[in-house]
Amino acid sequence: MPDRFPRIKICGLRDAATVRLVAKAGADAIGFVFYAPSPRNIDVEPAKALLAAVPAFVTTVGLFVNADADWLRQTLRELPLDLLQFHGDESPEYCRSFGRPYIKAVRVKPGTNLLEYAALYHDARGLLVDAFVEGTPGGTGEAFDWSLIPADLPLPLILSGGLHAGNVAEAIAAVKPWAVDVSSGVEASRGIKDHGKIVQFIKAARSA
């Protein structure tokens, strides 16, 4: 449960101007996608420069999908990410093997047992819930039925999936998440962030 308002993560950033804008607008966390099929994918070298542009007290998050463990360890030696976000079918043992705080994403559909996931990934810093879309691990812009989220989830809940400035206040009122996470909902086109939409989203979430 948030004390006054949920924390806000803007995900899928790829340029320094947007990183600065997101931080200045008041986001709590900035996400970088390290998944080649995604239109928001970023390589390690440009990510280094973007991480250097993130000011103090803004959490940096690296999103990975079923990444090769050796490649990921090498990547983490080069990038000072604060938090890892696992968005694939990673096991609990895999997630905790890198020695860094992590959150686990779950794509929700009818029959998904979020309490079971919370027990399996009990040491995660949060459980991120997203819409289930066959063959796509995230960033689809699709929402899901929020009533599928149990009220007694023992991990901090991060709500994602189909959020935008027009519905984030409603989502916060209905779900009362610890945090909200947005990517496609603040884009002009796939992978291209819209600065105006980012500012509107953050204002809407803060006013909820």
From TrEMBL:
Q: Which GO terms describe its biological process?
A: L-tryptophan biosynthetic process
Q: Name one GO molecular function term.
A: phosphoribosylanthranilate isomerase activity
Enzyme class at the top of the EC tree: isomerase
The chain positions of domain N-(5'phosphoribosyl) anthranilate isomerase (PRAI) read 8-203
What EC number(s) does the entry state?
5.3.1.24
Pathway field:
Amino-acid biosynthesis; L-tryptophan biosynthesis; L-tryptophan from chorismate: step 3/5
- Keyword Metal-binding attributed: no
Asked whether the keyword Isomerase is assigned, the reply is yes
The entry sums up its family as follows:
Belongs to the TrpF family.
What is the protein named?
A: N-(5'-phosphoribosyl)anthranilate isomerase
Q: Which organism is it from?
A: Amantichitinum ursilacus
